[in-house]
Amino acid sequence: MQVTETLNSGLKRELKVTVPAKDLEARLEQRLDDAKGKVNLKGFRPGKVPAQHLRRVYGKSLMAEVVNEILSDTQKLLSDRGEKPAMQPEISMTEDEKEAEKVLAGQADFEFSMSYEVIPPIELKDFSDIKITRLVYSVPDDEVDEQVKRVADSARTYEVKKGKAAEGDKVKLDYLGKIGGEPFDGGAAEDSEVVIGFNQFIAGFEEQLVGLKAGDETTIKVTFPEEYAAEHLAGKEAEFDIKVKEVSKPNDLEINDETAKMLGLESAEKLREIVRGQLENQFGQVTRQKAKRQILDALDEAYKFEAPSRLVEAEFGNIWSQVTRDLETAGRSFEDEDTTEEEAREEYQRLAERRVRLGLVLSEIGEKAAVQVSDEEMQRALIESIRRYPAHQQQEIYEFYRQNPQATANIRAPLFEEKVIDHLLAEISVTDKNVSRDELMADDDEEAEAKPAKKEKPAAKKKAAPKKAAAKKEEGDA
Hints:
Elements: E1 2-9, E2 12-19, H1 21-36, H2 51-72, H3 74-80, E3 90-93, H4 97-104, E4 110-117, E5 131-136, H5 141-152, E6 158-160, E7 170-179, E8 182-195, E9 217-223, E10 237-250, H6 257-262, H7 268-302, H8 309-330, H9 341-368, H10 375-386, H11 394-403, H12 405-427, E11 429-434, H13 437-441, H14 444-450
Parallel strand pairs: 5-11
Antiparallel strand pairs: 1-2, 2-4, 3-4, 6-10, 7-8, 7-10, 9-10
Helix pairs in contact: 1-2, 5-7, 8-9, 9-12, 10-12, 11-12
């Protein structure tokens, strides 16, 4: 095999590979010899098929296998060159049928070219220079008690009353939601039960039920939050036609062992323990995400190198399709988000480059630290992923993952990344800072705006990005 480098520019490489016809012939002879004792042809005893007859019958198909084997060995070729391709190399070969026939007949050299980008060498730096402040929120007892009451309220009984609804009452009602006078999907229900003050509905909805009584009909006006999960409703003004059917007052509820048993737990103490654990886990995840963001920002500053363009293009494509899909679903445009398509493309292009660079850096860190994702961890993550689908689809989804290495790699990647972050947390300088709930839950953008900009680099006002875009999710940053 003769390999000639025809392009070496930045990260881009191109190789011309020539496999002489005599080498192809040698490989074919080996395959014919291996096949001699295995094939059964009419008129010949096993192992007694003449070589020329075997070549006539199977020569072309076996040579095709030889060619495919050579193409499959390109990874070894690059490994021998000490190169790591960023993506699967692009292979080009003759499209001329006559030339291809000559190759398969062993009458011509097999030539093809490979174009690819290499992963740049990354020299890891001393992690002890990285310093972050980890925001920690200690959940107070009164917040645990408040949440326990909310959980226990599912066991509370209500008694129908006459008169007007008040805070804490349960209201049974029919409603029909409209935007611009037209009903919208998911905006209607009958015999819906709303406990005033539980904040289960859109802000402003429950408050307008106060003072209503059975038989009343009215219209409630609300505005959906900008970050509402159903993006076609986000930020929209809506009206709900309401018909009150029943008003009930809550009976007294004492948090005791009997109440806990109604919830399937052995004691009130166990109920508080579980609720505290859930709250601490919830806020702990926010703490970790903010610490991770600081680590990624520090790595982004420390490692500046050219990222493979094909990886960046692929990442940008993923981000852009998510952004445009979210805008379409929400019925909004870039102008509605105080930006333009050109500006948004530039912003998400930068994000794609950042993600690719950070992904490569984290991969290098993990490789040097011998970070491993165990089979057990993969199995748990796979099961968790499959459980998100309806039961009748789960076996099909399992088979899909089992037969598609790339899909499995997509499950492994976030597990690997989190383990690398764990490794870094043990290597860098971490200072814990106790903060209030509001400080912990504040958006990163809000925190940045609260800090004075450096004089030498005044911060320009950043255009708003499309809501719920993939770029908003820090867990996808690397």
